Amino acid sequence: MSHHCARIHIISSHHQEHTLCAHRSCSHHLEQVVRALIEAGADIEKPDNQGWTPLMSTVSNGHEQVARALIEKGAAVDHALSNGATALMLEAQNNHEQVARALLKAGADRSKEVTGYAGWTALKLAERAGHTAICRLLRE
To answer: Does one domain contain both 7 and 60?
Structure first.
């Protein structure tokens, strides 16, 4: 962990580096690093080259505490990729129930559809993947 803290200190004056480090930290489940980056001014909404926000990276890896940290700081839960996929849709395919709960509690829109696929919502994706707990949650 000290390696990451040192990196935060070194890059603290470079906004672009904050964002890159935030994406990497989110995908590696480093809650304290993410919180420190947020405090240092990291842009938690800036997407990477594929359009993924730090929250999307986090939920796709099932990191509940990191997701909660980003949500607490106001991360947009309904940011969509170019195909319309949202963090909730990514989560529905990955079967991390507590992360899905956190997204829903933060107001994630369960009715959004994947672009060009009428009816392909988070629920449809969870059903297709056989994630019954996520399906139950999305039907509540």
So the answer is: yes
Q: Residue 136 and residue 54: Cα distance in Å, rounded?
A: 26
- Domain residue limits at 9: 1-76
The helix (H) or strand (E) run that includes residue 88 is helix 87-94
Per residue in 107-137, pLDDT (tens digit) is: 999 999 887 777 889 999 999 999 999 999 9
Which has the closest alpha carbon to 58: 15, 115, 106, 130? 106
The count of domains in the chain is: 2
* Alpha carbons 38 and 72: distance in angstroms, whole number: 11
Same domain, 58 and 102: no
Query: Does 19 share its domain with 51?
Result: yes
Read off the pLDDT of residues 40-69 as tens digits, 9 standing for 90 and up.
Answer: 888 888 888 888 888 998 888 888 888 898
Q: What is the pTM of this model?
A: 0.78
Q: Classify 47 as helix, strand or coil.
A: coil
What are the angstrom distances between the C-alpha of 124 and each of 5, 37, 72, 129? 41, 35, 28, 9
- Are both 20 and 51 inside the same structural domain? yes
